[in-house]
Amino acid sequence: MKLRKKIMSFVGIILIVSIVAGYINPITIAYGYESKNARVSVNTGYKVNIRQGAGTSFEVLKSSTGSSVQLSNGHSVTIINEQNASDGMLWYNITFKYTDGEVYTGYIHSNYIIIEEIDYEEDGDFEEYLDEQEFPESYKEELRLLHAKYPNWVFVADHLDYEWDEVVKAESKLGRNLVYTGSISSWKSIQTGAFDWVNNKWVGFDSDSWVAASKEIIAYYLDPRNFLDEKYVFQFELLSYNADYQSAEGLANILSGTFMDGTTIDDEGTTYSQAIMDAAAVSGVSPYHLAASIIQEQGSGGGSGSISGQVAGYEGIYNYYNWGAYAANGNSAVKNGLIYSSKTDEATMRPWNTRYKSIVGGAIKKGAEYINIGQDTQYYIKFDFVGTPYTHQYMTNIQAAASEGYIGSQAYTEEMKSQMQIVFKIPVFENMPEENVPIPTKTGNPNNYLKELKVEGVDITPTFLYSTTAYDAVVGYDVSSVSISATAIDSKAKITGTGVVELAEGSNVIKVVVKAENGSSRTYTITIIREEAPKIPEGVFDITSEEYLISDIITGVMPSTNQDVFINKFNVTNGSVKVLNAKGEEFSGALGTGCKLATYDLKGELVKEYSIIVYGDVNGDGEIALLDLLKIKKHILGSSELEGVYATAANVNKKEDGITILDYLKVKKHILGSSIIEQ
After folding, report:
1. 3 state SS of 89
2. Between 164-171 and 215-222, two packed helices, what is the crossing angle to 10 degrees?
3. What is the pLDDT of residues 347-358, one digit of tens each?
């Protein structure tokens, strides 16, 4: 068997050119330099800047869109040259294809590169060892590459009697694993209690900076096969103290550039390095793990209140490993951690009222409660399979094991890694997927719920609730279309299926689809039953009234009669009626001269329109007043003329002599209240 990562060899000067944002970007490969395939190695979830020259003093490379060029863990690159920066650190000149599809060249610090120029000639003994350990085939390729580069390393398969799917399900319990709030959406859980759909935000756990991890990102970090490279594999390193190779020199590599680099912690001049080495000897825990754990918990700058010694009420109290540090009972995580640190426990040197006691005592606790009982790797400190599984996990950050393993790898120089026999205890679960679990990459808000859903003029059942997706309504046959409107909770979601919808007789299924920013969809269904057309019975349309006189006109209507009172005084056979104003429009309010009663048969076809007369109301407002008297006077004097129904209304004595002074006098007496016009 022979595995070999591809290597391109160049013996001359080759110029590769790519067009980026309108200018030519030359990629020059140095004469005689043998290019190397490599990949970026940074903490998963983080990115590294690519610079225009060797060193941090050079500006970050810009993409075709003007944004900074940053590469994530695992991004493939080709090393075309190498150069030492002014501080002596090694930088690689790399070329790579970026996310915008363009090819770029730039510089990256050698700490963030894994070169894949590895030849693996078949090693029968190692192959036999892999079989003896019963490593699945999906583990072997990466282990072979590690063995080829570091033949002294020992890989132990730890076969766990746990079904893979059950482990993922158990670790997905709400709040058991968390990610940073700023993580991409597919890393964050949307199970019940993890996302507040109504207020459109993730629910904070421990603090607002942390939210529940998604099942997909949990499965990714659970899968050991995703981390079998020379840096992340250190999360599987056995964490017991081994004085043969865990030294102050290796510890210095981890502390370099952090707040603990050469810093003293007391008036006696004790350095962090000395305190951590003492802690390792007393607790039996690897000093590299202790240092990585402190950096993971406190950050490389060490600015946390947990170790400031200045938190009000807890001055001089320290908590380097963040024991008991979780938000609860109205207290912040830092305060609860300091409350824990201030209590007395001789076995762990509490109260931790000196930095030394916190570092050493906290290490004793970690050794007693984790490392020395079988949770003896970063992975097993994070994912617990000892005793009652899942219940004794040191940290909730889903990235913690990988991150601390990555930090711990920095303890070893390349020479140390090549010469030392480092033992890695690698978990293997029952019925794992055949291939590595991929890292989720989907971005965007997942909210695909509606805030409002309406059918204009129609009541839907049940009353709208964002989480209810099925509704019903019934409309009459005369409703041939409906207007549907909807609003999404998240303004970035897209809605389809709204607007005017034509209705057929019977069942009409209308689907309103909400597509979230991340591409996920939710469908709301409205089933509208349009009643069938009424069957027309035998018989002829007829209309009668005991209140009003019906001929070609309708009379007997008193002034200020409301249309709904008026219409109820008619008996209609095989049809229906509507009251219209003088313009032919439906209205509500008082009737006046010029209004009409429209009659329809059962097919909805117009049978006849009757004009309505209110004697004495000649302006059509339904009242008998001075304006009506004035219009009658002008008609008699000939200055203006009343016509049609308005002339009929002015002939209040109902004689065939037209509009006379007698009609004028009757209207005047009605207004004065001395007599009433008969309708």
Report:
1. coil
2. 130
3. 999 999 999 999
